[in-house]
Design a protein that fits this description.
The structure is a single chain. By secondary structure, this protein is α/β, with parallel strands linked by helices. The protein contains 10 helices and 12 strands. α4 (91-102) links the parallel β2 (80-84) and β3 (109-113). α3 crosses α4. The radius of gyration is 19 Å and the shape is globular.
Length: 316
Amino acid sequence: MDFLTTVKGSLMDGFFPQGWDLRKIDDCCVQAPETITDRQSFWHHGFNPVVCHDVTEFDMKMGHEIAKEIRRSKELGQKLAIILPVGPMGMYKWAVYFLQEWNVDAHHVYGFNMDEWSDCEGNTLDQADPGSFQYAMEQAFYGPLGPLTVPVSQRNFATKENLPTYLDKITELKGEGARLIVVFGIGRMCHIAFWEPHFAAEYESVDLWRKATHRLGAKLHPLTIEQNAITSFKSRTTLVPCYANTIGPGLFLIADQIIGGCDGIFGRGMQWQGMSLWTTLRYGPDPWIPSTYMPTLPGKLFFMKDLAGPLVAECN
């Protein structure tokens, strides 16, 4: 007796996106934990998952990877376009630490926040609201860098006015020799940024889906809202907007390199991200599961060891 044998006629019947093969997802999750880094045929030859044994190691390694790319582009005399998430967050203090230790400035960096809370028309939270992603970035990264920071004019946030300009700005930067780095987490619904799986139903082909650069006032899945209620709003669902502005695959899939992170553990054996991680690494590219495209790009995906499982019942 489990979800698959009892879902019919329940309140969960039809809850997950229509394109999800739940049996296939479950098959991804039953594999032995020690096999999670085994290479798959659809992975890019330059893609590597990296296990971390505790949160400090995770934050440090991911922050070092971000700082290393900023230093590398500085040494090469190149501009760097970097798409940034709010979640994971712990890596930013380490990115700041390394850049300050190396005395490397980020004056050549152009930051693009990948998403922001909004209403159905794409109007965003005030930048001073502690729940806004712009506020989080200013507090965690841009502010603490001090004189080494990214110039204000080179910080881009996913507002109704600015998000539609991302593609042109990034295209211009790449034309000037800049590399594009995409930093990301993986959502409970296997979204990247707030690009949700149910959006796939609106596209006639995979090619059209892949070309979509952004969405204003994107309608979020209920589990995305609940994930954020737990991780960012102290369980208070009533504070979480039901819409967001977000980049799409037309931006996150043109990355020259990716830096991903999965740190979704709570302690006492509890977690929320193991199924999402295993599905990302095993399912194979599918627009109904956006995160499955990330292993097709070069870069690293850092993850907490506990997420590898075994993903079995354990009452807490």
